[in-house]
Design brief:
- The structure is a single chain.
- The protein is an alpha/beta fold.
- It folds into two domains: 4-31 and 281-410, Beta Barrel (Lyase, Ornithine Decarboxylase, Chain A, domain 1), CATH 2.40.37; 103-273, Alanine racemase (TIM Barrel, Alpha-Beta Barrel), CATH 3.20.20.
- It has helices at 18-25, 34-47, 65-73, 83-91, 108-117, 127-139, 178-187, 207-226, 253-264, 277-280, 313-317, 407-410, and strands spanning 4-7, 10-13, 16-17, 29-33, 53-58, 77-80, 99-101, 121-124, 144-151, 173-174, 191-197, 233-235, 270-273, 284-295, 300-304, 323-325, 335-341, 350-358, 365-368, 390-394, 397-402.
- The strands form three sheets. Strands 4, 14, 15, 16, 17, 18, 19, 20 and 21 form a nine-stranded mixed β-sheet that branches. Strands 5-6-7-8-9-11-12-13 form an eight-stranded parallel beta barrel, surrounded by five helices.
- Strand 12 (233-235), helix 9 (253-264) and strand 13 form a beta-alpha-beta unit.
- The chain is globular and about 70 Å long.
- The chain binds ligand LLP.
- Residues 58, 60-61, 79, 102, 162, 199, 202-203, 237-240, 274-278, 313, 317, 373-374 line the site of ligand LLP.
- One of its GO terms (molecular function) is diaminopimelate decarboxylase activity.
- Its EC number is 4.1.1.20.
- Pyridoxal 5'-phosphate binds at residues 239, 274-277, 374.
- Residues 29-372 form the Orn/DAP/Arg decarboxylase 2 C-terminal domain.
């Protein structure tokens, strides 16, 4: 459930008319709903009530400090995959003791930063990384609590670009290498084995592959304990899917939590979750303005002021985002079939193909729904377009939580090389 609804024919985020935000901030821009973020975090927390559980919001899905601060207040921890995300989480007030560090390519500098901050856990993804972490920890007289991310060789379904738990994916340690690597971890200075980690993909609506992966990991946990490892935690990653359109019916958090309770029963483990999309996805929209309509022989193009640089999911994953007009169209409004495209000079700059929408005129505004996860975080300044701004709504008020840079700011980090700069 989210808080984007029509009131008197105008699309609102909570109690704020989205047209008002579009007027004041300009389009394209992202708008997030605090009430929705809080609600989603609460739904997950209550589904896991009674289980020893850390909810580490996956910062990669939406790393805005305003969003992270909202979730920090709800007691969320963070799953980070870079030194930058770690600093964002800390800055937003998420305690280091609730932060886990995932990702296949941590640098020594990022490890040092995380060790000095005192994070909850490193999710280690290779032998090389484990050895490097041992060196960095010993050099700094610190100890790294680790889980090894294992690759359970389970296909999660969904788009191939977001599946991570199959043999051949770059993620995790191959299943047959896991136990030898735990043995090595136990012998390395500066390393303290605390858990096992798995994450099989994203936008997973079906609990069957998740259960299969988690059961495999429980088997591994038992064997590791028998071998003398003190496994106290199980990090089950993120990946729970959300509805993007009518008819989508992903497993709800309650069923996910019940499945996890069943699989981990009697093990005495702290469960760590890394939900991203299920918290942030339906908590955000991207607003855009229609620029032109262009009739081609077989296609009716609707050209809008947002591009794939602002929201890349359709271009990258064939992702569907519902498109709603900010001014509600009546039941008897004309309808048209559009290819909705942006201004970027790339053929993949297409948000929707043959989409049936109420007829739209230049100047009218639209909202791309379910854009709170992997939206603004994946935006770029391609075609020298300013990075898209972000707005957070809270009841009847809103604040700009990232403003649009002006041209001077966009080029502030660049310079003309010295040899082209005439000296006096
Ligand atoms: N943990 C790890 C280790 C991950 O790699 C991810 C997502 C998550 C947690 C959070 O997954 P979530 O709960 O959000 O599904 N850009 C793609 C999705 C990429 C997901 C990457 N990893 C998209 O827009 O669909």
């Amino acid at each position: 459930m989210h808080h984007f609804t029509y009131k008197d024919g105008r699309l609102h985020c909570e109690d704020v008319d989205l047209n008002r935000i579009a007027d004041e901030v300009g389009t394209p821009c992202y708008v997030y709903s605090s009430a929705t973020l809080v609600r989603h975090a609460g739904v997950i927390a209550s589904a896991f009530e009674g289980q020893d559980c850390l909810i580490a919001f996956s910062v990669k899905s939406n790393g805005n400090i305003g969003v992270l601060s909202t979730l920090a207040r709800e007691g969320c921890g963070a799953d980070v995959v870079s030194g930058g995300e770690l600093q964002r989480a800390l800055k937003a007030g998420i305690p280091a003791s609730k932060i886990v560090f995932s990702g296949v390519g941590k640098t020594a500098e990022e490890m040092r930063l995380a060790l000095q901050a005192g994070i909850h856990q490193f999710n280690v993804e290779s032998a090389g990384e484990l050895r490097r972490l041992s060196e960095v920890a010993t050099m700094n007289n610190l100890e790294a609590p680790i889980a090894i991310r294992v690759n359970p060789d389970v296909a999660a379904g969904g788009h191939p670009n977001i599946s991570t738990g199959k043999k051949g994916d770059k993620f995790g340690v191959p299943w047959s290498d896991a136990e030898p690597l735990y043995a090595e971890a136990a012998s390395l200075p500066g390393i303290r084995v605390v858990g096992v980690d798995v994450h099989i993909g994203s936008q997973i609506g079906d609990l069957v592959p998740m259960r299969a992966a988690f059961e495999k990991v429980i088997g591994l946990t038992r064997r590791l304990r028998e071998a003398g490892h003190d496994i106290q935690r199980l990090d089950l990653g993120g990946g729970l899917g959300i509805p993007y359109k009518a008819g989508d019916d992903p497993a709800p958090p309650s069923a996910y939590a019940a499945m996890i309770a069943e699989v981990t029963a009697g093990m005495g483990l702290q469960v760590i979750l890394e939900p991203g999309r299920v918290i942030s996805g339906n908590a955000g929209v991207m607003l855009s303005t229609v620029l032109y309509e262009k009739q081609a022989p077989d296609t009716n193009f609707l050209i809008i002021d947002a591009g794939m640089n602002d929201l890349i999911r359709p271009a990258l994953y064939d992702a569907h985002h519902d498109i709603l007009p900010l001014d509600e169209s009546g039941a008897d409004a004309d309808r048209k079939t559009y290819d909705v495209v942006g201004p970027i000079c790339e053929s993949t700059d297409k948000f929707a193909k043959s989409r049936d929408l109420s007829a739209l005129q230049p100047g009218q505004r639209i909202a791309f729904m379910s854009a709170g996860a992997y939206g603004a975080v994946l935006s770029s300044a391609y075609n020298a377009r300013p990075l898209v701004p972000e707005v957070l709504v809270n009841g009847a008020s809103f604040d700009i939580i990232r403003r649009r840079p002006d041209f001077e700011e966009m080029i502030a980090l660049e310079k003309v090389p010295d040899w082209l700069t005439p000296t006096a």
